[in-house]
Amino acid sequence: MNIFVAGLSYQINDADLKELFEEYGAISSAKIITDRETGRSKGFGFVEMDDEAEGQRAIEELNGAEYDGRTLAVSVARPRTERPRGGGGYNRGGGGRDRY
pLDDT by residue for the chain (100 residues), tens digit each? Predict the structure, then answer.
């Protein structure tokens, strides 16, 4: 189960995030998302847990909880979509040609 965690303190690292979730079960990975340019935390991350029930329990208990002075928002991670918004862009406005 892939879990999205937002509202993290900028001082939290991968090990801290893993430790927070280990109380609820086995962790496959814990990753804080960082800015490519600065390397600084963006204040959110992802945790992968092997067991669905343990992951659900972690979400229920940690969502809205305070950690390191911040309130966490914890939910099931949604798959990232690469599609552009607003459709494919084909045949919009008739193609721009006059027809004879």
Answer: 999 999 999 999 999 999 999 999 999 999 999 999 999 999 999 999 999 999 999 999 999 999 999 999 999 999 877 656 555 555 555 555 555 5
Task: Say which residues have a Cβ less than 8 Å from residue 97's Cβ, sequence separation at least 6.
Answer: none
Task: For residue 56, give the H/E element and its range.
Answer: helix 52-62
Structure tokens at 52: 């669905």
Q: Check residue 65 and report its DSSP letter.
A: -
Nearest to 9 by CA among 70, 73, 75: 70
pTM of this structure? 0.78
Beta strands in the chain (DSSP E): 2-6, 27-34, 41-49, 66-67, 70-71, 73-76
How many other CB atoms are found less than 10 A from the CB of residue 41? Answer: 18
